[in-house]
Amino acid sequence: MVESGTQTVGIAAAFRTDGARPKLMPYLMGGFPDLATSLRVGEAYAEAGADLVELGVPFSDPLADGPAIQAAGETALRAGATLERVLEQVARPLSQRLPVVLMCYLNPVLHRGLESAIADMAKHGVTGLIVPDLPAREAGDVRAMCDELGVALVPLVAPTTPPEEIDWIASRARGFVYVVSVTGVTGERAELPAGLGEVVARAKAAASVPVAVGFGVATAEQAAEVGKVADGVIVGSRLVRAIAGAADLDSGLAEVRDVLGSMAQALRDPGIG
């Protein structure tokens, strides 16, 4: 693994294993329901025990997003969220509290210009980058630019990824390996797939960085289950739904803190789940 510059240290420090619990990484849609409020939601994540945050940039054609996150992205776009505004008004202040891993589709990066976009991410405190519509085999130029500018390009593997391809992707991973737990888009699931542990184990065997699991995690019990096999747990749609369905922001933030607090406790206590 190659980690350039200083930004990637944030991920390494957050995942450092010294007997501590698996790490909790909630997803935040930047600009939902507006930029200022999304920052308040991110701050609530930090207060509730998040170790890192996955910060989404809204996009008009979000192929990996399920209904809750897609609707949040549409709201954020209508409210004027852009890559630049999410970096300036959400990523920069949040990065003072916990590592920020940006989830951004490829089009906004290329539209801005590869070097300019990644340099701006680094300037605003982004420590890692997830590009869900960038195949790992085609990521060479983006990975090289991220290495040069000190942003970890985090790859994804899924249950449908062939075993030998998991080996190839994981062995070249920066920051951490993102294991997509299910086949399909983001969203809450009643239960996690039976073969998840095998995918995580394969990625761990090939990677020199941690392995985190996302898509489908919605309860403290599921977080605990994932935490038994993975180094990190990513939760998104459940939190987006809490804000979207709340009668007011304060009650939404209270629900977010409750959900994340219960997950953090479940990850601290291996007897839960």
- Please tell me the overall pLDDT: 89
Structural class: alpha/beta
**Main sheet, how many strands, which sense, barrel?**
9 strands, parallel
Order of helices and strands: HEHEHHEHHEHEEHEHEHEHH
Q: What is the count of helical runs?
A: 12
Could you say which overall geometry the principal axes of the C-alpha atoms support?
Answer: globular
Terminal residue distance: 33 Å
User: Largest sheet, order of strands side by side?
Assistant: 5-4-3-2-1-9-8-7-6
Low-confidence stretches: 1-9, 184-189
Count the strands? Answer: 9
In percent terms, what proportion of residues is strand? 5-15%
Helical fraction equals: 40-55%
| Radius of gyration, CA atoms, in whole angstroms | 17 Å
What would your notes on this structure say?
The protein has helices at 9-15, 35-48, 67-78, 83-94, 106-112, 114-123, 140-149, 163-171, 196-206, 220-227, 237-244, 249-268, and strands at residues 23-29, 53-56, 100-103, 126-130, 152-154, 156-157, 177-180, 211-214, 232-235. The protein is of the alpha/beta class. Strands 5-4-3-2-1-9-8-7-6 form a 9-stranded parallel β-sheet, sandwiched between helices. It is globular.
List the helices and strands and how they pair.
Elements: H1 9-15, E1 23-29, H2 35-48, E2 53-56, H3 67-78, H4 83-94, E3 100-103, H5 106-112, H6 114-123, E4 126-130, H7 140-149, E5 152-154, E6 156-157, H8 163-171, E7 177-180, H9 196-206, E8 211-214, H10 220-227, E9 232-235, H11 237-244, H12 249-268
Parallel strand pairs: 1-2, 1-9, 2-3, 3-4, 4-5, 6-7, 7-8, 8-9
